[in-house]
Amino acid sequence: MVDQLAYSEENAERIAAVDNLFSTTGQVLATPGRVLVGEGRLLKLCRRRPQAKMFFLFNDILVYGSIVVEGRWCERQKVVPLENVVLEDMEDGPELKNRWLIRTPRKSFCVSAASAEEKVAWIEHIEDCRQRRMERTGEVPTAPLAAAWIPDTASAICMRCCSKFSMRHRRHHCRQCGFVVCATCSRSRYVLRHISQKPVRVCQLCHQMLQDNAQNRGRGGSDGKEWSDDDELDRPLHEGPDGTACWNAHGPPSSIFLGVPLSPPKTKSR
Question: Which of 126, 206, 246, 248 is spaced 20 to 30 Å from 236 by Cα?
Answer without folding.
Answer: 126
